[in-house]
Amino acid sequence: MAQPDGKKIFFENLSGAGKAIAVLTSGGDAQGMNAAVRAVVRMGLYVGAKVYFIHEGYQGMVDGGDNIREASWESVSSMLQVGGTVIGSARCKEFRTHEGRLKAAHNLVQRGITNLCVIGGDGSLTGANLFREEWSGLLTELVEQGLIEQDSVQKYSALHIVGMVGSIDNDFCGTDMTIGTDSALHRIIEVVDAIMTTAQSHQRTFVLEVMGRHCGYLALVSALACGADWVLIPEMPPEDGWEDKMCQKLSATRSRGTRLNIIIVAEGAIDRHGKPITSSFVKDLVVKNLGFDTRVTILGHVQRGGTPSAFDRILASRMGVEAVLALLETTANTPACVVSLCGNQSVRLPLMECVEMTQEVQKAMDEKRFEEAVKLRGRSFENNLKTYKLLAHRKPESDLPHSNFNVAVLNVGAPAAGMNAAVRSAVRVGISEGHKVFAVSDGFEGFYKGQIKEIKWADVGGWTGQGGSLLGTKRTLPAKHVDKIAAQMRQHNINALLIVGGFEAFESLLQLFEARATYEEFCIPMCMVPATISNNVPGTNLSIGADTALNAIVETCDRIKQSASGTKRRVFIIETMGGYCGYLASVGGLAAGADAAYIYEEPFDIRDLQANVEHLTEKMKTSIQRGLVLRNENSNENYTTDFIYQLYSEEGKGVFDCRKNVLGHMQQGGAPSPFDRNFGTKISAKAMQWVTRKLGETFRQDEGKPFVFVTPAPRPSLSLHSASLVCLPLCRKTVIISHSRVVNE
C-alpha cells in the first residue's frame, strides 16, 4: 500500500494537519505490536499529521535524543510479518518518578508532540494516564526552570492519550482479545500437535506448562482447542481432592484405549488454599499414583516469539486506525481511552475503568472469590470454561439423562478446517444431554444411501486437531433425493438435524424446509453451524475454517515477499479462493500488506487496473521495490488472473517484472488454527444445546408413538451481544448459530 497522492482525506471531518502523534511500545513484547505501530504511522500520515517513533518505550521518552524520530510511510514497510516490536520496549524505573516524567514532557514539547499512542499492558497504560494528568503541572515546572517558553504552555496545554493492549496473556478487562494472544495460542497448539504424535507412539502423558502468571486464558483455550484431559488455571483452582480425581480420569481414558494424555498447567496455577501447582508436581503425582511414562514441557518465551497470526495483524491494524481517529476526535476534557475489541468491532472504552476492573480480578483471586474472578474475566472466558467442563469430563452412564431422542450430524459442502472440532463438540454435548447421536458420512449423498451409524463419545477423541472432514463432505443438495432421505429418517427415527457446512448447507436447509409440506419427517428442529473458508454464509460474521485459510494465505504471502527481497522490482499476483465472496482476498490483503485486492463485491475496470500499475511504477522509485496484489478467484469473469498478470507484465516492462501464484486448495487444507478449533467447539456446543431445548418444546409422548411433533417451534428469542454465540432464524424452526457483533436490540 503506497501513500496516497495529495492529502485527500477519506475521513472528511477529521484532519491531523498541525498535529504530532507519537507511538511507543512498553512492557512485555507481543506479536502484532508492529502491525499496530504500522497502522498508527500510516493512518497518522494519511490524515496529514506528523508521526514519531519513540524507541525503547518510556525509557526512550525520558532519554530523548535519537530515541524520538520522525516516521515516514516507507519506514514501516515490511513490519507486518515481524514478531516482537521493532521500535523496542524496556522497563523504565525513571518514568515512575516525577523527575523522569518531567524529562519526558520536555522531550515531547520540544517536538510539539501532544498526542500519545501507547501499546502495552495495564501498568504501561496506567503510567500513561498519570503522565496525562500531570501534564499541565509538568509544563509549568519546565517554564519555571527556563527549559520552555511561556507560550508553549498554552500551545501544548493538553496531552491526549490512547492505549492499545499488547499482551499474550489476554489479561486485560474490557477487550475480548489483546494483541498477541492469538499468535501465542498458535505457538502452543503447534507444540501440542507435535507432542501428540510422540505421545501416541510411546503411550505417554505430557504435562505442558504455558504462560499465564495471573491469567489462565492461554491454558484454558489451548486445553479446549486440543481436547486436553485436565487443565489447571489460577482463576478456578481445583476442588480439594483433585489429585485423585485427575488420576481417575487419566486411568479411565487409558482403559478405553487412549494412548496419550495431555495436562495443561498455567504457570500461575494454584489450589484452593493458594499453594502453587507446578508442572513438576503434576508429573510426580501421575508417576507416583499411576506409573505412567510422563514428560514435562515448559514452553516459556517461545510463546512470545515467531510471526504474528493473521488475526493479530488484522486486530492490531484495525486498533491502530481507531487509535488515531480517537486522538483526532479527543478534546481537553476527554478522558484517556483504550481501544478494545468487542465482538468484531473496535471500540473505545475509558482507560482507567478497564484498569480498575483488571485489578479487581486479581483482588478477587487473592481473596479466594474464584467464581467472581471468572465472571470478571468476561463472558468469553466464562463460556470457554463452561464448554471445556462440558466436553472434557464424561459422566457415568447412570448420571446421564435419557431423552430417547436421536440426533443426526453431518457435514455439507466443501471441507473446512475446524469441521471435526465442531462434530466432536456436537457429539459429546448430545451424549451429555442424553441423546443418541448418529453420524452421516458424505453429506446428503451418504444420507440417502443410508451411510448412517451411531457415534459414541470415544469415537471423536482427538478430532479437534484434524483438518478436513473425517465424516466426509459433499456439495450434493437434498432436493433430488428428498424421498430417500425422508425414508432414512423414518428408518433411524431421526428427531433432529445438525448440519456443519457452508452455503450448500444453507441451501439444503431451505430445501428441507420447503419439503415439510410433503414429508412430516422434516418437521423437526434443524440447525446449521457455518463452516466454510469463503465466509459467505448469511447471518454470521465468521465461519469455521476462514481463519485457517487466512493464515495459509498470509504465510504464503510472507514467503513470497521474502523471496522478493533478493530480487528487487517484482510484483506478485496472488489468486485466492472464496467463490463470489471477497473476504479472503480483502482481509488477507490487509493482513499481508498488499498493494491492491480485487474482489467481486467491488467492481473494477481497466482504468482501475491502469491506476494500480502506475502506482506500482511510482512505488518502485522508493525503497520499497516490490508489490503484492491479491485477486478473488471470481472477482471478474473477464479480468482473470492471467489477464491481470499479462497486463502488469506489459505495462511494467522495464520497471518491474511479474510473477503469479494460484493458491488453490492449500487454503482448505492443513490443521485448523486455534481460533477455528475453539470457535467450532463452542459454536457447535451452543447448537446442540439449542436442538435439545427445541426438542423438549416441540415433542410430546403419545400412545403408539414414542414422540409426536406438536407444532412448529417458535422463532428463537434473540438477545444479541458482542462476542456472543447466538441463534438466528433462517426460517421457521431452522436456525444458524452465529458469531454476532454489537447490534441495537
How would you summarize what this structure contains?
The chain is built from 22 helices and 25 strands. It is α/β, with parallel strands linked by helices. α6 crosses α7 (217-226), α10 (310-329) crosses α19 and α11 packs antiparallel against α12.
How does this model look, in words?
It is globular, with a radius of gyration of 28 Å. The longest helix is centred in the last third of the chain and has 25 residues, at 674-698. The protein contains 22 helices and 25 strands. 41% of the residues lie in helices and 18% in strands. The protein is α/β, with parallel strands linked by helices and 745 residues long.
Please supply descriptive tags for the structure shown above:
seven-stranded mixed β-sheet, alpha/beta, 41% helix, 745 residues
Task: Characterize the largest beta sheet: strand count, sense, and whether it forms a barrel.
Answer: 8 strands, mixed
Mean residue pLDDT: 89
Radius of gyration: 28 Å
Q: What coarse outline follows from CA principal-axis ratios?
A: globular
Helix content: 40-55%
| Count of helix runs | 22
